Amino acid sequence: MEKDIRYTTQLKKNINREFVYTFLSNFNLISTVWMLYLAYKGMSLTQIGILEGIFHITSFLMEVPTGAIADIFGRKTSRTLGRIMWVVSNITMLYGNNFYNFAIAMSLMALSYNLESGAGQALIYDSLKEIKRKNEYMKIAGKIELITQIGMISGYVLGGYIAKIKYELVFIYVIILGLIAIIQSLTFKEPKIKEEHQIKSLKAVFKNAYESLKYLKNRKDVLYLIFFIEGMFVVGTTLFFYLQNYFLSIGFNQFEIGIIMAISGLFSATMSYFSHRIEKRIGLKVILMVLPLIYSLLSFGLVSKAPYIFNILMSGIVGILFIVYNDFVNKNIPSEKRATILSMCSMVYSFYMIIIFPLFGKFADLFSFKSSFKTLSIVILIFSIINVAVNLKSKKFKYISKK
Known about the structure:
With about 400 residues, the chain is mainly alpha-helical. It has one domain: MFS general substrate transporter like domains (Growth Hormone, Chain: A, Up-down Bundle), CATH 1.20.1250. The chain has 16 helices and no strands. The radius of gyration is 20 Å and the shape is globular. Residues about 195-200 have low confidence and may be disordered. InterPro entries: MFS (IPR011701), MFS_DHA3_Transporter (IPR053160), MFS_dom (IPR020846), MFS_trans_sf (IPR036259), Sugar_transporter_CS (IPR005829). It is found in: Membrane. This is MFS transporter.
């Protein structure tokens, strides 16, 4: 009995520990300067696009194996390894001087994200499930996203400020923060569901991945949302990073760019925090159909005289979609396959990024940023309209019948 009480207490502490870890791992000073740093190192937009493509090719190939590793060997182990890879990748980036050095750094960085993607969500969701509080997941996820954005916002501002002094200093501070995050990752308590696995082998990893794919085949609503919403997130990421170079080209400095991205992050965090209330008021169906459409229309404003305003508004929509989408997916997948399926979500994301990010960079090199933004806006508007049609016609999606 005493052992059970101690175990439950440790699981409850996972929540507060997650808040601390989330801030540390998202206080990422390089978010708004890594593309500027690569350009400073002599990389063209096309080369930067290819480097990001290498990141996502690595991520695409390793998502399912690393996600299954989190399910088999433990979320805690996976996250710790992820932070270690993060530190190594930034050391490589700091001392890199050519395309090949940066390619290695991006591959290592992808592995760090692979090892952590899905593992954190799975650890918290299963901790809540074990202590009979899983219905609080959306609310807690909103708080986690708020802390994520606070960490990112702090990183945007401070990273931009430090980059104005010296780019290399940014990476030195990131490495130090990464080492602190490694220590914090060791404080989590693994939910018992992980201890139920007896066979910790490579065969078990791929078997778990196969069974997860089989499960998704029978849940077309979950599968559809993964492919559509991850596509929306890819568009958001592509715009986020290329806008940094675009803002620099129209006269903003690194610190000002950091401020703009910080405001966008703050608005996204605020909308994420209130997403559970928004979902209760307007419903899941409306959110998943209408918000992507609004997002695509706002994207046309990125070529206006005040692109930063539209960027801020679009960030708010992504903040809502992120929490609502993740809550729906988590509620509709089994615990023993959770990290694997969440990693499959990241795998879909990486697949899109492999195509879209380098293509956008090449297009911007050949033509202009504005032409690239307009083209991307037209594409996502078309897909948003198709999304509305699919949702209205389908009778197999469970959330469609919800009021």
